[in-house]
């Protein structure tokens, strides 16, 4: 008991940032199920009550984690006058964050945090839409389409990375269907070799390229000039 008292941290010394750091560590190591206030208290050598002083609920903590992931994604980002390059850069930043923190990404990337880092992302995406030649509702609509596509894909990828049912291999993910009567599913049977080895980074690159190509057509249809530079969509 005396040893436990000595290792306990001083009352009032716990900060929100420390709690969020610990929450991210727990999720990185053990998945979302590890994110409990009792586990956080043990991780921080504090009591769950101390955590509740900073976060009224698990939902509040997840919102703070969403802001932290946004901050990680945006670290070092500088907008340019090339809207295509900027949207590509921002998209791959979200993807790499999901790769680094899959459980947290799966749980929070689609949350509306109303936080400063989220606002920074909104500002820069809308800036890119403005540079592309969109204003007002069309710009906001494309902002929504872009973020839903990017964050939805990154969140889903994070979920795949932490899924106990997924089998990871060097090149991608094994996706195998073995129906009793393959003749009932001729198209799936014909594509089974390709289905068996899906590289979701490659899929995301294709999604992003298709969206950017469609956005160029949308802008062109409005008669606004755009300037684009060649961008490598591989994210490498």
UniProtKB/TrEMBL annotation:
GO terms for molecular function: DNA-binding transcription factor activity; transcription cis-regulatory region binding. PROSITE patterns: HTH_TETR_2. GO terms for biological process: negative regulation of DNA-templated transcription. The keyword Transcription applies. Residues 13-73 form the HTH tetR-type domain. Keywords: DNA-binding, Transcription, Transcription regulation. Residues 36-55 bind DNA. InterPro entries: Homeodomain-like_sf, HTH-type_TetR-like_transc_reg, HTH_TetR, Repressor_TetR_C, Tet_transcr_reg_TetR-rel_C_sf. The keyword Cell cycle does not apply. Pfam families: TetR_C_1 (PF02909), TetR_N (PF00440). This is Transcriptional regulator. It comes from Microbacterium testaceum (strain StLB037).
């Amino acid at each position: 008991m005396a040893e436990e008292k000595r290792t306990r941290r001083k009352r009032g010394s716990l900060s929100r940032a420390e709690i969020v750091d610990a929450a991210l560590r727990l999720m990185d190591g053990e998945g979302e199920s590890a994110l409990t206030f009792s586990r956080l208290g043990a991780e921080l050598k504090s009591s769950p009550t101390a955590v509740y002083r900073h976060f009224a609920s698990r939902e509040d903590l997840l919102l703070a984690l969403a802001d932290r992931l946004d901050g990680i994604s945006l670290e070092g980002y500088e907008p340019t006058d090339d809207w295509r390059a900027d949207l590509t850069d921002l998209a791959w930043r979200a993807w790499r964050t999901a790769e680094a923190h899959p459980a947290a990404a799966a749980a929070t990337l689609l949350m509306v945090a109303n936080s400063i880092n989220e606002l920074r992302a909104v500002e820069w995406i809308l800036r890119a839409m403005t540079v592309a030649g969109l204003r007002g509702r069309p710009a906001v609509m494309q902002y929504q389409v872009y973020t839903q596509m990017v964050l939805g894909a990154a969140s889903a990828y994070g979920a795949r990375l932490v899924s106990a049912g997924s089998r990871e291999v060097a090149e991608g993910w094994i996706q195998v269907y073995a129906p009793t009567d393959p003749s009932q599913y001729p198209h799936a049977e014909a594509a089974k070799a390709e289905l068996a080895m899906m590289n979701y980074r490659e899929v995301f690159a294709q999604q992003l390229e298709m969206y950017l190509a469609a956005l160029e057509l949308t802008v062109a249809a409005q008669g606004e000039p755009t300037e684009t530079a060649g961008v490598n969509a591989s994210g490498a």
